[in-house]
Amino acid sequence: MVTTIKKGTSREKIMNILRKRKSKTKGIDLKKYCGSISLNEDPLEMQKKWRDEWDS
Q1: Full-prediction pTM beyond 0.70?
Q2: Average pLDDT by consecutive 10-residue portion of the chain (56 residues)?
Q3: In whole angstroms, what is the distance from residue 5 CA to residue 15 CA?
Q4: Dihedral sign computed on CA atoms, order 21, 22, 26, 28
Q5: Per-residue CA distances from 30 to 33, 34, 53 (Å)
Q6: Angle, vertex CA 11, rays to CA 8 and CA 17, nearest 5
Q7: For residues 21 and 5, what is the distance between their CA atoms, to the nearest angstrom?
Q8: Maximal C-alpha separation, the chain
Q9: Could you give the C-alpha distances from 43 to 8, 32, 39, 51, 52, in angstroms and in order?
Q10: How far, in Å, CA of 9 to CA of 16, rounded?
Q11: Which of 5, 17, 24, 48 has the most CB atoms lying inside 10 A of its own CB?
């Protein structure tokens, strides 16, 4: 979303626009994904192995 504020717009009007914009945004609860997967292998080793696949 883009908001255009022209020169000479009052501070109150700008603050009102920003309040309206904040109220429309929705947050995503990322905490529900924390610890959702269990790995049998070290993640760093997995990443190195996956990167080496591109070289072959």
Answers
A1: no
A2: 86 89 71 85 92 80
A3: 11
A4: positive
A5: 6, 7, 30
A6: 100
A7: 13
A8: 62
A9: 54, 20, 8, 12, 14
A10: 11
A11: 17
